[in-house]
């Protein structure tokens, strides 16, 4: 009987091991297929320009909006565009995709730079091979990229900080969740927020922590922070998933009211504002980034002079205008 139970247990463990192995292999294969898809086909090279858009996370709604803008622009300009991205946010996988795009000798690259130091050498390598690069959403300001298209992240941080101050009457103890400590855009938003808060003597940042651009991590870090510091009554999320994670965390911390402020206009964030769980968010224009990014690359290849920095607008969304934003 004991031997039979041992055989049964061993069989179950073996099945679980095989399942995990297959999941890992499937994930790896998906990434490999994304990289392999960057191999330029001869028919693509003849006649039409071939651009690559390298996003942060393949199925992320924000990046799908960027992709939509890029495809609409490419269709208008009669350009072939390919959208690739890691399945989950990964600087290493983004760099692999960028390196493959350079090796494939595409006509132009649009890429988000989550880490200025890490991306700069490969961007410069592309430029040296006469492949123009436009950074999107997050810049690599120390690189030789042709142009940046996206939010003025410092100004967006100022706007968010001022919104927090206005809606809390300049009083409160603040916890901050930042998506990534290495991302230039995240650091610029944070600096903008802090420069507003320091003007208000009754507002204090108690702690800040990183979510690694993960809703689950944002929730875990927010819950830890709220349990540790009983005086925190304001939470600010700097990346798209942070406010949603913070809101989820407050479901288990019910000893006080927490005012939540976020960034970006994901569906869950909009619902949070409608349900009065999130006070406000700063919305970017990802569709415009994708659309203008393709046009900037095309202008460069046509020999036109382009502006080095191109800022897309932002908007403060609160309970007062959230329904109008959702309808758009």
Task: Report on this structure.
With 328 residues, the chain is α/β, with parallel strands linked by helices. It folds into two domains: 35-151 and 286-312, Response regulator (Rossmann fold), CATH 3.40.50.2300; 153-284 and 318-327, Response regulator (Rossmann fold, 3-Layer(aba) Sandwich), CATH 3.40.50.2300. Helices cover 50% and strands 18% of the residues. It has helices at 2-36, 42-45, 61-77, 91-103, 116-128, 153-167, 184-197, 215-228, 242-250, 267-274, 286-301, 322-327; strands at 50-54, 80-84, 108-111, 133-136, 147-151, 172-178, 203-210, 234-237, 259-263, 280-283, 309-312, 315-318. Strands 2-1-3-4-5-11 form a six-stranded parallel β-sheet, with helices on both faces. Strands 7-6-8-9-10-12 form a six-stranded mixed β-sheet, sandwiched between helices. Helix 1 packs across helix 4 (91-103). The N and C termini lie far apart (66 Å).
């Amino acid at each position: 009987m004991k031997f039979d139970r041992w055989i049964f247990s061993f069989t179950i463990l073996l099945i679980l091991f095989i399942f995990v192995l297959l999941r890992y292999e499937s994930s790896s294969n998906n990434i490999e297929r994304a990289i392999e898809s960057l191999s330029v086909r001869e028919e693509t090279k003849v006649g039409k320009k071939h651009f690559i858009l390298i996003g942060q996370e393949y199925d992320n709604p924000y990046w799908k909006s960027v992709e939509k803008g890029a495809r609409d622009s490419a269709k208008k300009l009669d350009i072939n565009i390919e959208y690739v991205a890691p399945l989950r946010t990964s600087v290493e996988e983004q760099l692999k995709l960028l390196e493959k795009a350079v090796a494939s000798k595409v006509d132009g690259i649009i890429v988000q730079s989550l880490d200025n130091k890490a991306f700069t050498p490969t961007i410069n390598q592309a430029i040296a091979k006469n492949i123009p690069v436009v950074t999107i959403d997050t810049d690599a300001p120390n690189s030789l990229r042709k142009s940046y298209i996206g939010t003025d992240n410092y100004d967006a941080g100022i706007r968010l900080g001022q919104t927090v101050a206005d809606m809390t009457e300049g009083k409160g103890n603040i916890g901050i969740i930042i998506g990534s400590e290495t991302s230039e855009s995240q650091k610029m938003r944070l600096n903008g927020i802090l420069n507003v808060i320091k003007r208000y003597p009754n507002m204090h940042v108690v702690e800040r922590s990183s979510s690694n651009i993960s809703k689950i991590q944002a929730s875990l870090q927010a819950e830890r922070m709220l349990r540790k510091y009983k005086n925190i009554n304001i939470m600010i999320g700097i990346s798209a998933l942070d406010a949603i994670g913070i809101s989820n965390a407050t479901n288990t911390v019910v000893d006080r009211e927490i005012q939540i402020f976020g960034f970006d206009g994901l569906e869950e964030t909009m619902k949070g504002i409608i349900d009065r769980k999130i006070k406000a968010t700063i919305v970017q224009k990802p569709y415009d980034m994708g659309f203008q990014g393709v046009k900037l690359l095309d202008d460069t290849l046509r020999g036109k002079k382009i502006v080095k920095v191109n800022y897309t607008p932002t908007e403060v969304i609160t309970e007062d205008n959230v329904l109008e934003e959702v309808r758009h």
